[in-house]
Amino acid sequence: MKIRNSFGLNEERKVFIHENKKEESVLVAIPSLSWSTYFSYDEYGEQLVEDMISSLKQRTEENEATELAQRINQWTREM
């Protein structure tokens, strides 16, 4: 598991990322927002980012949701 810090406009958020290579999937959690998502390698792409933004907007402001989704996408692609 990797822990990343996202420094946004509002505050610092810890983002927990677990990659399951055997099942080719990723679990991402942000405890301070009570938010998590699970996706497979096959789901990478713009639709995944849009889905994360939509989900995160329910927990935080749109700007932060967009920023977090883009960072999560970048971090998970680097794994």
UniProtKB/TrEMBL annotation:
<dbReference type="InterPro" id="IPR020260">
    <property type="entry name" value="Uncharacterised_YueH"/>
</dbReference>
<dbReference type="Pfam" id="PF14166">
    <property type="entry name" value="YueH"/>
</dbReference>
<protein>
    <submittedName>
        <fullName>YueH family protein</fullName>
    </submittedName>
</protein>
